[in-house]
Amino acid sequence: MNMKFTCKDNIIIAETSGDMSLRDTLMCGQSFRWREAEDGSFTGTAFGRTVRVSVKGKELIIENSTKEDFENIWKDYFDLEFDYVALKEELGQMHPVLLEAARFAPGIHILRQEPFEALISFIISQNNNIRRIEGIVDRLCEAFGEKLQGGGYSFPTAERLASLSAEELAPLRAGFRNRYILDAARKVASGEVDLEKCRTLPYAQARAMLMTIVGVGEKVADCVLLYGLHRTEAFPMDVWMKRAMSTLFPDVKPEFFGEYAGVAQQYIFHYSRMNPQLFE
DNA sequence: ACCCAGGAAATTC
DNA sequence: GAATTTCATGGG
Length: 280
Prior knowledge:
The protein has 14 helices and six strands. It is 46% helix and 11% strand.
């Protein structure tokens, strides 16, 4: 499949299927690095590039991107080539509540984030709230990432973080997670944990490798697999998902949703979090 | 003061 | 092994 797009003055205009929503995709708890402006555009950083993105009709507009960056980074990052319309049709037929959840935020795409960023971000996410996670990730990038053209900061490398001490992480105010961040950075930097290998390893083995990191349990490992390595069979089970599964999907197991269970998870997670009255 | 937040480790039974 | 407690920090 070949995406149609134009590039002029470092502004990309890409033709989408028309179902994608940046708000659904960027504000549904996958990434902690995007901020919405008054005009509905989003500014954020990934793979060492800061861009502003917006949607107008069927057009996705990316400012501050070259043609090469679009082809090498953003087309994949936003998962623009996957047929979500067909998948929603398929998932919707599996369960009426899943149909409801997918219709609530039909514009969700699963981002293909930097694996190391997903690892550190979701380590930080444990027993934490989204507002504070965003603050900690911001401070992490400002302190240890590189300042980029466009105003943002890159996500720090594993090597950079591996060189730090717990005291040097104190200003992040990540609390007990500091030593988890360091253990993750050191194991990735040394190659003891090979994130790229987790892309192709059997799911159970990839998950087990991630869980050798102190501070990475089943849920965080599944988030890294889904959001960082696009392993769509992963089905992160946080408190919201446990509530949702027991009350909205009694007797349904994640495997029931199949190869794209992770996408179903994202519809259900967002739907649940935006409709807490379902669980009163 | 108390409770909770996209959990996981440490401890206890 | 399964259940409970603890772990920093910030906001309601």
